[in-house]
Amino acid sequence: MRLTTLAKLVGLTLTTLTLSSAWALDEEAQAAKDEGMRLYNALQREESIPYLEIAAEAGDIDAMFYLGKASHSQEWYYRAAQQGELYSMLLLHDACEKQQLCPDDGDDWVEAAIADALPLAEAGNTNAMFALYPLYATQGYDAEPQYWLEKAAEAGNVEAQFKLAGRVRDGRAGYPDDTERLNAAEQLYRRAAEAGYPRAMSSLARFLHDQGHDDEAWQWMVRASEAGHINARQWLAYCYIEPDEEKNGMCQTERNPAKGWAILLAVNEEAPNIHIENALSYFGDSDEITPEQREEGERMMEEWLNREPPLSYFPMKFFGP
C-alpha cells in the first residue's frame, strides 16, 4: 500500500498540510527546528541545515521538506513525500523517471499528491485547496488551478489571497476593467493583511502608495515591519534616513538617521543580505548620516535586535505561476 497523507492514517482533522509530524518533538529537537526555520525564513539556507537535520532525523515532516530545499536533497523530499508532504511530492515530479524514486503505488508523484489533497480540499481544508493550485498547474490543467486558488482565497487562506491578489493586480485573472481589477486586488491584499499575513501587509503598503494613499501605506509598512517582514524593516530604515527622497514617497515620518542606521545594523546582524550590505556601504560613505549619528545608531542597535517575531521573508513552499 502506498504511503499517503497522514490524514488517511489518523483522520482528516489532524492534517494542516504542512503535514507535520505524527509525534511531538522533544525539547532539543523542537529548539533545533525553530532555529532552523528562523534561519531558513531569513534565506540563510546553508546555516539552517544542521538545525533542520536534527528535527528531520527526529521525524518532523516539515523539517524533512525544508531540509530537502535547503540542501537540494531528493532523499529528504522522498522521505517527506512518503509521509504525505504534498509539496515534496510536487518537487519530486520527475524523480520517478530520472531516479527511480517512485510512489509505492504508481509512477506519478503529482497525481498521487492530487489524489491525497482533493478529498481534503473538498472537505474544507484550505491548505489542501491552496496546494491543489500548483499541483494542477504543474500537470497542465486549464481551469482547475485558478478554481482552487480562488476557493482557498474565499475560504480565508492568506497565502492564497496574497497569491491571487498578485495575479489579479498583474492582469492574469480575467478582469477586463482596470478599476475593477485594482479594487479586487486591493481587497485581496487587505483581507490577508488584516488577517496578519506580513507579506500582504508589505504588498498592500506598496499598492496603496502606487494609488497615492501614502498615509495608509505608511501605516501598513510599519505594521509589516512590526510583524517581522525583512523588506518592510529595511524600508523603515530608509525612511528614517531619507524620508524626503522622491523614491521614498510613502515615508510619513520625521528624519532620524541614527535610528535608520541602527535598524540597518540590526538587520545585518540578524538576517544579512546583499541589500543591507549595499545600504551600509552607501550610507556609510554618505553625508546623509554623520559620524556622530552612526555612533548613536550603534548604541541604539540593541533595541532592534532579536525582536519577536523573528525577521523573515515568509517564503511560500513553492514558486508557482
TrEMBL record:
Keywords: Signal. It comes from the Bacteria. Gene3D superfamilies: Tetratricopeptide repeat domain. Residues 1-24 form the signal peptide. The keyword Ligase does not apply. This is Sel1 repeat family protein. It comes from Vreelandella titanicae. The lineage of its organism: Bacteria, Pseudomonadati, Pseudomonadota, Gammaproteobacteria, Oceanospirillales.
